[in-house]
Amino acid sequence: MKKINRQFDLFNNNNLNFSDKGPLQDVFIDKKIIKEWQAKIITHQSPIFKSGHIDVNQYSLFESSSDELNASFNPIELTPLPLSFWRWPKAMHEGPAVYFVMDEIIDSGENIILYIGETISAEKRWKGEHDCKDYLSSYSDSLHKANVKTKLSIRFWLDVPTKTKERRKLEQKLIQAWLPPFNKETREIWATPFTSQIN
Question: What's the pLDDT at 86?
Answer without folding.
Answer: 59
